[in-house]
Amino acid sequence: MSTTTRVYAGRLNGMIVRGPDAEPIGRVRDVVVSIRPTTHLSRALGLVVEMTNKRRIFVPLLRVANIDPSDITLVSGSISMRGFKPRSGESTVMQDLVGTKVQVNDPELPHLHYKPVEIADVELERTRTRDWVISRLAVFGDRPKFGRRADLHVVPWAHVLGATSGGFGQTDATTEIIASFDDMRPADIATVMHEMSMLQRQQVAEELDDERLADIIQEMPDDHQAELIEALDIERAADVLEEMDPDDAADLLGELPDAKADVLLELMDPEESAPVRRLMTFSPGTVGALMTPEPLILTPQTTVAEALAMARNPDLPTSLSSLVFVVRPPTATPTGKYLGCVHLQKLLREPPSSLVGGILDPDLPPLYADDTHETAARYFAMYNLVCGPVLDEDNHLLGAVAVDDLLDHLLPEDWRELGLRPDPIHSHTPSSAR
């Protein structure tokens, strides 16, 4: 997590960007933002980083672990090497925004009302959901005569008028569609995109950032997933697959021709492709093909406080945060010997300093990688769980299977296309109320 929660884009410009190993990657040259109508949050999407070979790449802000006075540290050294190219509806702060004119209606600055003011800098703020949004603008007022510097004012973003998408340029239908997705869940966006023509789906996919597109593709029917991945240029398709959950990426690659899947796996970062390759070795109808290799895995010496902090990770699905799995080192799957698990409810009842090794539930039976989907369904029904451990024959933890992934495979293939329908039993008006 970044300790800095407010920063001006101008201050980031020129800062060194480092990987988690502290090795320099390049320097920040701009910040990419998405300007939305006043009823929506305008977000900062990422950094334009110039590498030592002068190539400029895009680094999502969600990859930023820490912003210090002199440099920026990333969560992972795995980043896309594709050259930066702004998409529809995106603007860059230094190139597109700074120096342009807007209007303000800040009640604290009545002397600036109805006058064009020039943007000097853009303040970004990190929200509780880890998104970065535009919070304020620094603007120049009237420029005085005799060469004196203009007064600098700070204006809340809510009081800025005249800012539109695409670098204050013309908007288009695709930009408006993407703007309408701002406050929607990925599953709901996938439903909307299902109703689009194939061409329109592809146009929208081209303009979405990799992480957002990955979240949406995971919620689509299999044929639409394969269609969109095949429509993307091959380097970007590999980047999107890296952003997907390993089990979903494995399922999608299984829908593609073997030759295409092999090429995409080669293009993916080895650290990201390794768990996907492992999952693809399991038969389609088994628990092994459904599981995620990245559940919450701890050693016995972990404290309850540390376990709860990890369970609060906003990137972790709620089903996977319900259980923590305790193993002997190593903790990367396949792990050392599996010792047991602890339910989130039990963690909440224990003193923060207690060790998870002392509060294990060692008696909960595991699932095995070659178990069938029906076996997993009976397991969840019997033990009232939404997540369960998956072991190999040598008692090593391979991953965890979540009930939502199981339902995805047990429901009819077209369940996403049917959507949520009103229950016919309850959808009629009672005769007494007519």
Automatic annotation (TrEMBL):
Amino-acid biosynthesis listed as a keyword: no
Domain of life assignment: Bacteria
Gene3D superfamilies cross-referenced by the UniProt entry: CBS-domain, MgtE N-terminal domain-like
Record keywords, A-Z: CBS domain
SUPFAM superfamilies the UniProt entry points to: CBS-domain pair (SSF54631), MgtE N-terminal domain-like (SSF158791), PRC-barrel domain (SSF50346)
Keyword Cytoplasm assigned: no
UniProt xrefs under Pfam families: CBS (PF00571), MgtE_N (PF03448), SH3_actinomycetes (PF26205)
Domain CBS, first and last residues per copy: 360-418
GO cellular component, one term: membrane
GO molecular function terms noted in the UniProt entry: magnesium ion transmembrane transporter activity
Descriptive protein name: Magnesium transporter MgtE
